[in-house]
Specification:
The chain is an alpha+beta fold and about 500 residues long. It is about 30% helix and about 20% strand. The chain folds into 2 domains: about 80-295 and about 405-490, Zn peptidases (Aminopeptidase), CATH 3.40.630.10; about 295-405, 2-Layer Sandwich (Alpha-Beta Plaits).
Length: about 500
């Protein structure tokens, strides 16, 4: 929750705020239990991260840090760079850049040529901002470098990253963004016949209490906040740093990647370009969330072989591979599916079944926060496939492919990377909320490669669906975190 100086009227010429004893009496504390220890820079709360809210305030109260460096206004939506951020985001989501999982699995990068359209726009804008080494390579990675401020040349470089593709599970073509200003709660009926309902979405209900600006699609497509909100926030933060040379910073690198949604976003990342030994992805969700751990991820492909025969005299020789595949999927542990798990619980996710009587294939995702748990899941798949083949008198082959690993261990080895991000959250008016990523990011892969990369929120919600929406105030706060992160590294 990128909340700085929110809901308080500031005296003219002041950019800091305080809470009176009377106001303090209205602060409510909501504990969020977390499984893993929080970084030492957080105040000890017995394994809990506290977020403070004043009941009558429009925005959450800032808990720690120095207000003097914060650029947010009391009404966050009036922050100087808010209009530019909104304009960028609305423009970006209209660019069709949906990736193609099948093409990516076949080794094609980018998986869809339309991703180059988004990359071309960003390259032009980065050049227009006067950044150095601006380029988009043959694999559609866009890169640029903002030189260090005078006197900060020895400050360690950092890289800000987001991905330009949208998921292919829901159409991202012809996105028609709608802006719902001064949202005060209640259902939002979209033209394509679906409704954003705060009764079913607590974050939307929260936004309705603050008069936030909500951005959605028309309901016929996804919105594309995943991850064009992150792209817009990085571009806006970089523009701010260019226009405000008084904000000291080291070298800031920017990289926008293709094919993150296919799981191949870091397959051909041009690491040779990077000066940074630490990166930050901007690919999270609700304000204030700071993600330093994620699933271990494997993909399992199960191939069933049956025996075809004329259906009129199939008995006793036919072995139907479709039945084998169906039986296999129906016998996966029902309590360990995506729709029946949350928090730190892993799952089996059947994604696709295809085939006929003679052969059939099942593709599923395995997710777990521990490698012991992942090995258990792989054994369950192996045993269930073998048992299914035995029962049906057919054959089964299983191939497990690693996709990414939990980034927690890598980040724990270099705690400074997360500690500085925590300081940036606080400088931007936030007390970070640590939660696990029930998925992965390009940062998961980068951390495996030895470049620690935590993940920052974007203000997007309900990803990978036609119900996707973004909070403009939260996007502004995410942008402020990036500005403060540059400043913190230069201290």
């Amino acid at each position: 929750m990128n909340d700085c100086c929110r809901g308080s009227s500031l005296p003219e010429g002041k950019n800091s705020c305080s809470v009176s004893p009377q106001q303090a009496g209205n602060i409510l504390h909501f504990p969020l239990k977390v499984k893993s220890p929080l970084p030492a820079v957080l105040p000890p709360q017995s394994g809990r991260a506290l977020v403070a809210f004043r009941s009558e305030m429009r925005y959450p109260v800032r808990m720690n840090g120095d207000f003097s460096v914060c650029n947010l206004t009391a009404d966050v939506l009036s922050t100087a760079y808010a209009a530019g951020l909104k304009e960028r985001f609305l423009r970006y989501v209209k660019i069709w850049s949906e990736s193609d999982s099948a093409q990516a699995d076949a080794g094609i990068m980018p998986s869809a040529e339309r991703e180059r359209d988004m990359a071309a726009v960003l390259k032009t804008e980065l050049e227009g901002l006067g950044l150095e080494a601006v380029q988009t390579d043959a694999n559609c990675y866009s890169y640029a470098r903002l030189p260090a401020s005078k006197g900060c040349e020895k400050v360690p470089a950092i890289c800000l990253m987001a991905h330009i593709d949208t998921v292919d599970e829901v159409s991202g073509k012809d996105v028609k963004p709608l802006v719902h200003e001064n949202y005060r709660g209640g259902p939002i009926a979209l033209p394509a016949g679906i409704t954003l309902d705060p009764e079913a979405d607590t974050h939307l209900a929260e936004a309705g209490k603050s008069g936030d600006t909500i951005i959605s699609s028309d309901g016929s497509t996804l919105l594309g906040a995943d991850d064009k909100a992150g792209v817009a926030e990085i571009m806006t933060a970089v523009e701010f740093l260019v226009k405000h040379p008084d904000v000291k910073h080291g070298v800031i690198e920017v990289m926008f990647s293709p094919d993150e949604e296919t799981g191949h976003g870091m397959d051909r990342v041009p690491l040779k370009l990077l000066l940074s030994r630490q990166c930050y992805t901007v690919d999270g969700g609700h304000e204030g969330e700071l993600e330093v751990e994620c699933f271990n991820a494997f993909k399992s492909d199960v191939h069933f072989t049956g025996r075809s025969k004329h259906t009129g005299d199939a008995r006793p020789d036919m072995v139907n591979a479709i039945e084998m595949a169906s039986s296999f999927v129906s016998n996966l542990p029902h309590g360990e599916l995506p729709e029946t798990t949350d928090g730190y619980q892993g799952f089996f996710a059947p994604m696709e079944i295809s085939g006929g009587i003679e052969t059939a294939d099942v593709s599923l995702l395995l997710r777990d926060f521990t490698m012991d748990g992942m090995e258990r899941r792989k054994k369950i798949v192996d045993q269930l496939a073998a048992t299914t083949a035995l029962v049906f008198c057919g054959k089964a082959e299983v191939v497990h492919t690693q996709q990414y690993l939990n980034m927690k261990a890598g980040l724990d080895r270099q705690p400074e990377v997360t500690e500085k991000l925590v300081r940036a959250y606080r400088a931007a008016g936030l007390e970070p909320v640590f939660k696990p990523i029930r998925g992965g990011t390009d940062g998961s892969r980068l951390t495996e490669m030895g470049i620690p990369t935590p993940n920052i929120f974007t203000g997007g919600h309900s990803y990978h669906s036609r119900y996707e929406w973004a909070s403009l105030s939260q996007m502004i706060r995410a942008t402020e975190v990036l500005i403060q992160l540059a400043r913190v590294w230069a201290e």
